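Assemble and predict.
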Amino acid sequence: EPEVTQTPSHQVTQMGQEVILRCVPISNHLYFYWYRQILGQKVEFLVSFYNNEISEKSEIFDDQFSVERPDGSNFTLKIRSTKLEDSAMYFCASSYIAGSSYEQYFGPGTRLTVT
Amino acid sequence: LAKTTQPISMDSYEGQEVNITCSHNNIATNDYITWYQQFPSQGPRFIIQGYKTKVTNEVASLFIPADRKSSTLSLPRVSLSDTAVYYCLVGERAAGNKLTFGGGTRVLVKP
């Protein structure tokens, strides 16, 4: 079964540093998403991406965040200047090919620790 | 966006059937009901989706009464590996729509 992959599985960074989280969505999927989950809290939507542009973003997704699909396979989330409160699991997801049930397929996540 | 309410936690034993009920009193006409499962330190995984009556797949069944104000996810004969958080989501079934997760129901299956 095809799956979404994410790298790295764990990233430790210092406050103020830039991080890039990488995702390889399922090939032929058209929509891509980032979610995050702070330890012990709900899964929160960050951003959705379609046709090489942002479709929707949440209030969390401020100017410190950006997404990119640099080639035909990767989908990245960049945090320009990390804060302590950015520590969380970050999940990439992808969805939708014609005729599918619109379900989103999530990757295993990247645990980001900001010190 | 329809608000959902589900129990915070449930305990069960191996081999038993687990039923999780979700309330969504203000569900809209175009809304579908979708359930996701999340194991510790993993991403959520789609389980089942339905609009009305009953839907069954190899993992679970979803029962939706005629008024659609609630739904029940049924997990038959659970095993220890079914220990997870189960989320009920309600929203339009459309490509690209974001998922809005609530707190979910933490199911603990005991031996």
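The interface with chain B takes residues 4, 30-31, 33, 35, 42-45, 48, 50, 55-56, 58, 89, 91, 93, 95-96, 101-109, 111 of chain A (CB under 8 Å).
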